[in-house]
Amino acid sequence: MKRVLVVTGVLLLSVGAVVAQQDVAVQQQNLMKAQGKNMYGVLLKVVKGETPFDQAAVNAALAGLEADVAKIPTVFTPNPKVDVVDATFGSSQKIWQNKPDFDAKVTPVTKAIVDAKGTAKDAASLKVAFDAIQAKCTDCHETYRVKLK
Amino acid sequence: MLRRILLGLIVAAAGAGIFWWLTIPAVVAPASLAAYTPNVANGLAVFNAGGCSSCHAVPSQPDRLKLGGGLAMPSPFGTFTVPNISPDLTEGIGRWSEADFVTALLKGTSPDGRHYFPAFPYASYQQASVADARDLFAYLKTLAPVAGKTPDHDLPFPFNIRRNVGIWKWLFMDGKPFTADASRSPSWNRGAYLVNGLGHCAECHSPRNVLGGIVATQRFAGGPNPEGEGWVPNITQKRLGDWSAKDIEYFLESGQTPDGDTAGGSMARVIRNTSQLSPGDRAAMAEYLKSLPPVEGPPRSSKAKQKEG
Q1: Cross-chain CB nearest to B304 (options A83, A89, A138)
Q2: What is the pLDDT of residues B109-159, one digit of tens each?
Q3: Contacts of residue B306 in chain A, CB cutoff 8 Å?
Q4: Measured by CB atoms within 10 angstroms of the end CB, which terminus of chain B is less buried, N or C?
Q5: Check: CATH 1.20.120.10 for A2-147?
Q6: Together in a domain, B232 and B110
Q7: What is the ipTM for the molecules in this complex?
């Protein structure tokens, strides 16, 4: 009986550990999804002419992006070692082999967003700013984001 | 007994002979190249369609035209280091003849008559036209020479034996240039030429067998990323069925997918090339991709897997 209890306990513990790792992975992914919402759900639609240019909405999206991007180095500090269940994207293990380089990819994004806050005054200038931000997001995704399906 | 040994020797000798014969590197004879004035502007288009800069540009610097090589390419067979193809006279291809270059690109054979490894995607480039290859050579000659020798490949035995590549070529390369399908539109044929030949899209977007050859029945159906982690997506209509031709065109121009995301991973480098193509060429590629029948890709484990840290 005792043995059964111990075995069950150990099993529960390890299940708990995997769940905790899932939570970390989900939290990391949600941060990126939030950035995706501002970037593609708001800004890209204006760039493509699907929604009219609205300075307040653009400013809000840029402010949201700036705040989220600043969180990347901390949120990605733990290595969950698992992918979010059934996700399209995951994190490369290279992040935790070279965390300083990963973190260094954040600064150029922030700079591009700050620049955009000063220059995006209509759909045309937003397009230039959008491409500049996107290029920096891609610089990180090229090395550290992994497509899973 | 003696007879059996003799028989064995004969079989071995015949085997060696067949091996030798099968693995003779193919070349393009200089005499077969008639007088020609290359079109450098088309050479630039060929360069962008072929994505040469993705592999041959010096890594971690922004100039796509600095073709000094040095990128390390991990693979299941070892690590390749991409060579210098700038017009440098000692370390690059500055002293190459036009026939040397056409042979390298279309046959995968070096000027000293050895096989290149298929990490250089000549199994796709072989479909390019000789005229495109000559224009590309003329264009490469206009670029700045980059000094510096790249390190050797790091390959274990037997993958380091170049002669063995002859068998690989015999198995996986048909040696035929692209042939147009007269029942299709000129733009479809242009797209098929770009996607299968210069664009070498199938090299990443297809599963491979143990010998590293593309599984022909699952061409374009995606598979595990040969360079490491993750998956290269299926680009047949199995997955791209709900992308319009315009969506594909816009993706090749900007990297933006219709579901609100942007290409990352090794596709980011591909977009840096396709974004430089003419709108007509991107539309042709999209038309061709939309015509690919849906093909189920290889199975992948659906459960989140514990990774080795």
Answers
A1: A83
A2: 999 999 999 999 999 999 999 999 999 999 999 999 999 899 999 998 888
A3: 18, 81-82
A4: N
A5: yes
A6: no
A7: 0.85
